[in-house]
Amino acid sequence: MPTRAPFAALPHVPDHPAVERDVLELWEREGTFDRLRKRNRGGPPFSFMDGPITANGPAGLHHGGRTFKDLFQRYKAMRGFDQRYQNGFDCQGLWVEVEVEKALGLNSKREIEEYGLAEFAARCKERVAHFSEVQTEQSKRLGMWMDWDNDYYTFSDTNIEYIWGFLKQVRERGWLYKGHRSTQWCPRCGTSLSQHEQAGEENYTELEHPSLYVRFRLRGEREGQALVVWTTTPWTLPANVAAAVSPDAEYGRREDGDWVAVERFPNDTFVERLRGDALVGWRYDGPFDHLPAQEGIEHRVIPWDEVSLAEGTGIVHIAPGSGAEDFELSRVHDLPVLMPIDESGRLLPGYGDLEGRPADAVEEPVVESLRERGLLVGAGTLVHRYPICWRCKTPLVFRIVDDWFISATEIRGQMLEANATVEWTPPQYKKRMDDWLRNMGDWNISRKRYFGLPLPFYPCDCGHLNVIGSRGELDERATRGLEGLTELHRPWIDDVTIRCESCGRDDVRRVVEVGDAWLDAGIVHFSTLGWKNPEWVPGGNATGAAAGLTGADLPDHAHWEKWFPAEWVTEMREQIRLWFYSQSFMAVALDGRSPYRKVLTYEKVLDETGREMHKSWGNSIELNEALDRMGADIVRWIFCEQSPSQPLRFGYGIADDVKRRLLTFWHSVAFFVTYARIEGFDPEAEAEGELRPLDRWLEARTAQLVREATDAYERYWTPSVIAAFEAFVDDLSNWYIRRSRRRFWDGDRAALRVLWEALTAALQVIAPVMPFVAEHLWRNLVSEEQSVFLSPWPEVADVDEALVAEVAEVRAVVTLGRRARDFAGIKHRQPLRRLVVQGAAVARSHVDEIREELRVKEVEFGEVEATELLVKPHLPALGPRLGRDLPAVREALSRGEFEELGNGRFRAAGHELAPEEVLVERRGREGWAVAADAEAGVTVALDTSLDPELELEGRVLDLIHRLNSMRREAGLELTDRIAVTLPAGAAELLQHADRIKEETLAVEVRTDGDLAEPQIAKA
Ligand SMILES: [Zn+2]
Ligand SMILES: [Zn+2]
Q1: Nearest ligand to the C-alpha atom of residue 107
Q2: Closest ligand to 506 CA?
Q3: What percent of the chain has pLDDT over 90?
Q4: Helix %, strand %, coil % of the chain (to 5)
Q5: Exposure winner among 144, 193, 642, 900, fewest CB in 10 A?
């Protein structure tokens, strides 16, 4: 039996960060998480696979989505599910390399090589070790419960070996090939980048580039004439080999001999006109024929259907070594390919004075040279959207390189089929995934870098490609270099040579490339769960670079069968083309199934006004700062409250609003605690007292909350959890407690018990969202020693729907009654004579409550008479739509010439007006205030006339309110009795002395002629 709840008094406002520090310490001290895991061991499995966080810097605000990972694991744990709780760190690839380069002040691949690959690898590993620790602390602070001693690290030898095994299978199926193609290339990183890495909107930026119009002089019988081309990449002109025209377009020659597309220059005068196909085959002098690189190149005009007539001149300069489409054209038309730049983006030998200059720094000499030779028609600048490196933000160029690819042709259909089995939340993202799968190209898996997955490709001179599938296979086939191989990384792996399985040659070397980092994260469903592993290996994932960082085991195949596929995964939407894609690719290839059954995906974080967050704009918020200043519960709440299909708005204003709203719940708990202390209420004791209809209603409402929240958790839809909780708290505080104050005052044990049950169920339901406050209050209300997370999930019971609907209608009437008062400008305390209610049939049995709540003497049910309907245009909505017709509609409305169409719609001056386009007010007859809720079909009319009796009563109620405020200000206990002295002028109020005594706990009320203001004294 747990110790009894302490019912400690609560401060008026919670200090979230302080509460959270206490709770973290409590969990640590009690080993709460371990106890929970132990309790659930052997329960039904809930398989969550963590998408690895890049251990490359402190976690940022956008990692606040880790809330979802924790929240749903907590929910499932409270329901008794057995879980793995394995956190993952992403550890190698460009991510880490670029940051280490920055930290070391290295600026090129040459500098990395001078620094030394072994040293560089050590620095990368140190960075990962450091930031995985930092991120662990941040995650704990956010409230994440994970098995922090057994994380997986994607740079472990085990993970690498599993990828090797995947690549070997891919090879066996004939999907692996070495491509020679034009690719997007980062000159700073010195590597090609893949379609899926680069596809994000954030990988483009507006850049200013030169805009040049250049003459290509024609030869032969067209001598003296020229083609005019347009380009924004001057550095590609020295590599020109052809000019493309649209075969169907019309081209014209100007007086000066320049040829352009007629459509582009409709106002020009042309002395000759030809269809594009007539230009095909013309020869011309290249713009840089004097350069050695251009020796022997024959320049000619080729046809191309894709020539744009929307920009430029309609004649396109073709440099197959510097553009993807250009390269494709070179294959079709058998054009020579000149590659002008090296891997750092500098011009190569053979390009004269330009040699050694970066591509983006040759504009001036190129322009100068063209001008001198009379080839420059015009020069300006252009701002356009341009791709930049996803990692280092350097503008990309195109280069022709040899890369390793996995063909997507055969797997595409299977991946689409696998995706058809997946349940996406929000559902529209399923189609996004389909779209991506339909459009994805072959997977470029090679990067010309250092600290990454070493591709296990060993091409032999005999023409055979050896692919190593495991460490064991490497050991078997190695002929040299194994002794220095402490981990499967460069440079050590590069010293290993193997024997060719085809010709027996014994010095075959690995290619130098490393792998795409998304292979690392994509394989984890296999590498962490022990796929095809015959025997469980303790510490088997703590291998290679991960040794010493984790204790993660390599389980056996039976374990994999138990936990694969994951029931659920969650990440940001951009992961559709990244992690969701790579893990699905690998799982479908290896096992033919999707690696996940359900996905929750969400949008990025913006500031509270909806702008992107940028340090330079001063609106970015660090995760640590948010946790320290607003508290983890509030951060989590903000992530949960908004729809994941919209960008998430985040900021301190939003946090303050959340805290303010949460106070209603806090104050409800505080209210309970106050009376429970006074009464010495014991939730363990046998129930006493009789339940009233209002109690049964709160029980029904509590059951409804549990049902709604459970349903929302099962759908992975947190906005509905929050909405259900807030609606419940409103009912609890603004109806149940408000209507029951006197009973608490009277020490009604039934009321205390019903309220206690409602509060504790609400705590359980909201605990996954805000674990800290929930735990803190649970320890106060239920048990000092037992965590809310060790309590069983509240039972989902039947709800008395009729009772819930009935009270909802009563609350609707009361809300309208208050609104009618507000219209009429009469304060809520002033008693009134009469209320007429139309339409709320089931509220009839609650007349007494309505009367009390609205302070009216009589409530009648019937027609609300003679209401005048006033309809005005809502200008911001209606103005833009109606434009010139607006005045006529406004006129008609003001004259009352309109027709009511029902459901809030109206017709006036021939226009149908939607509810959001009009402002509607109902005015009662003289002396009545009217309010209506069209949707609920309820209208109320309030008699606003006052008589002396009502006025006197109003004054009495004002006095009671004032005296109670004075009690609070004097710091009196709720149970203290007082004596009241009133000024002589208030003698009239003594007619109601009994009521004043009762409601202020006064033992006497008298007047004193000398007083100007009422006084109280403790009696
Ligand atoms: Zn880069
Ligand atoms: Zn061979």
Answers
A1: 1
A2: 2
A3: 84
A4: 45, 20, 35
A5: 900
Full-model pTM: 0.87
Cα–ligand 1 centroid distance for 123 (angstroms): 19
CA of 397 to the centre of ligand 1 (A): 11
Ligand closest to the CA atom of residue 189? 1
Pairing, β 283-284 against β 299-303: antiparallel
The confidence score (pLDDT) of residue 4 equals 63
Q: Beta-carbon neighbour count of residue 1007 at 10 Å?
A: 17
Residues of the chain scoring pLDDT < 70: 1-4, 866-867
Is the separation of the CB atoms in 664 and 8 below 8 Å?
A: no
> Cis link prior to 565 (omega < 30° from 0)?
yes
Distance 617 CA to ligand 1 centre (A): 24
Q: How far is the CA of 509 from the centre of ligand 2 (A)?
A: 11
Per-residue model confidence (pLDDT) at position 1: 40
Residues 830, 855 contacting (CB under 8 angstroms): yes
How high is the pLDDT of residue 867? 63
The helix/strand/coil state of 832 is strand
Give which of 250, 613, 581 is closest to 435, Cα–Cα.
Answer: 581
How far is ligand 2, taken at its centre, from the CA of residue 452, in Å?
Answer: 26
- Single-letter code of the amino acid located at 179: G
Residues 600, 92, 397, 339: is their CA dihedral positive or negative?
negative
Distance CA 496, CA 478 (A): 6
For 724, the 3-state DSSP assignment is helix
616-628 pLDDT, tens digit each: 888 899 999 999 9
Q: Report the run of H or E that residue 210 belongs to, with start and end.
A: strand 204-217
Going from the Cα of 447 to the center of ligand 1, the distance in angstroms, rounded, reads 11
Residue 395 CA to residue 207 CA, distance in Å, equals 9
Q: Say if residues 812 and 938 touch (Cβ distance below 8 Å).
A: yes
Helix (H) or strand (E) holding 810: helix 801-824
Instruction: State residue 877's pLDDT score.
Output: 80
| Mode of pairing for the β-strands spanning 596-602 and 566-572 | parallel
pLDDT digits (tens, 9 = 90+) for 304-335: 999 999 999 999 999 999 999 999 999 899 99
Query: Phi and psi at residue 979, in whole multiples of 5°?
Result: -115, 135
pLDDT at 139: 98
Q: How is residue 298 annotated by DSSP?
A: P
- What beta strand segments (E) does 605-662 contain? 605-607, 648-650
Which pLDDT score is estimated for 904?
76
Residue 449 CA to ligand 2 centre (angstroms): 26
Q: What is the pLDDT of residues 671-688, one digit of tens each?
A: 999 999 999 999 988 888
Sequence-distant (≥ 6) Cβ neighbours of residue 848 within 8 angstroms: none
Name the E strands within 394-542: 397-406, 423-425, 443-444, 446-447, 457-459, 465-467, 478-480, 497-498, 514-515
Q: Give dist(CA 744, CA 751) in Å, integer.
A: 7
945-949 CB contacts, 8 Å cutoff, 24+ apart? 945/833, 946/830, 946/832, 947/833
For the chain, what's the residue count?
A: 1019
Sorted by sequence, the CB contacts under 8 Å of residue 489 that are 6+ apart come out as 92, 121, 155, 451, 454, 544, 545
Crossing angle between the packed helical segments 66-78 and 632-641, to the nearest 10 degrees: 90
Longest CA–CA separation in the chain, Å: 122
Nearest ligand, CA of residue 498? Answer: 2
CA of 460 to the centre of ligand 2 (A): 5
Helices (H) and strands (E) in the chain, counts: 32, 40
- Matching residue, tokens 């606003």: 944
In 5-116, where does DSSP find H-type helix? 16-30, 32-40, 66-78, 94-104, 109-115
Letter string b/e over residues 582-591, b meaning 16 or more CB atoms within 10 A of that residue's CB: bbbbbbbbbb
CB-based contact 423:594 (threshold 8 Å): no
Pairing of strands 978-983, 1002-1008: parallel
Distance CA 840, CA 572 (A): 46
